[in-house]
Amino acid sequence: MIQTYRRNPDFLTILGGVLLAALLAAGTAHAVEIAADAAGGAQEEAEALDLASVDATALVQRADAIRFPRESFETFITVTNYSDGDAGDVREYKVMSRGNENTIVLTESPASERGQALLMRGRDLWIFMPTVSQPVRLSLSQRLTGQVANGDLARANFAGDYTAELAGTEMVDGEKAWVLDLTAAGRGVTYAKVRYWVAVADDRPLKAEFYAVSGRLLKTSRYENFQELAGRLRPTRLMLEDALKEGDYSVLEYTTMEVKDLPERMFTQQYLRRL
């Protein structure tokens, strides 16, 4: 029977068409595969060129300027601490900063701690307490309240404290972001390393992970609720979450912020003793 089909011209025509179609399909699939590989390679090359053209330090500086004004400013911060997901104590602070190098953090509440003040000059930090005659030296990494370290309020100068390296791009909540690896530029900074996500579209800080010298993840943060403050769009809510204990986190809410002339003489131990 097979010999009969082979002698049939129609059979040969059909068989030839089938073979031709198969060859064309295989060729098309291969061509599609080649095109896809080429497109992927072109995209990777384009992304590599984009990364090479980005100044990581300047990017961190622009994100810093969104978080806080470059000029002297004053802001009020409410900190709510959560444990196992339940709200705990609430604290209020008044922060006065001059050029992100000199900062005063005044405790407004609770009433039992009212009058306490942190003074930061450069990376040197002291605490003044009404019940203690002399200021006490502190570290920026020491815990202030909940998940908030002293440096989280007293010093917010990523560009000045870290060397930045661009690690690539990732999506954060549906938004494309630059990924930056920040390494402490010297001793005495708040965290040894930071992984930082900054929006590609407009340099907004989106997320950060803070690490110890050992490489252990300490906490994560998210910059949220962008609103107009001190003349531009800024994050008014910062969530700091303990990386080791789920459900423990602190929420910082910036209720007001304004650019304000703050003279250099304010940021001295002599001035704070009069407060």
What does this molecule look like?
- By secondary structure, this protein is of the alpha+beta class.
- The chain has helices at 2-6, 9-53, 56-67, 150-154, 158-161, 269-272, and strands at residues 73-83, 86-98, 102-109, 117-121, 124-128, 136-138, 143-145, 148-149, 162-172, 175-184, 193-199, 205-211, 217-229, 232-242, 249-259.
- The strands form 2 sheets. The protein has a 13-stranded antiparallel beta sheet with strand order 6-5-4-3-2-1-15-14-13-12-11-10-9. Strands 7-8 form a two-stranded antiparallel ribbon.
- A hairpin with a 2-residue loop joins strand 13 (217-229) and strand 14 (232-242).
- The model is unreliable at 1-6 and 44-49 (pLDDT under 50).
Stretches where pLDDT is under 50 for at least 5 consecutive residues are 1-6, 44-49
Radius of gyration: 29 Å
The strands making up the biggest β-sheet line up spatially as 6-5-4-3-2-1-15-14-13-12-11-10-9
**Structural class from helices and strands?**
alpha+beta
Number of helices: 6
Please, what is the average pLDDT?
85
DSSP strand tally: 15
Q: Note the main sheet.
A: 13 strands, antiparallel
Helical residue percent band: 25-40%
Strand content: 35-45%
Shape: globular
Distance between the termini: 109 Å
Order of secondary-structure elements: HHHEEEEEEEEHHEEEEEEEH
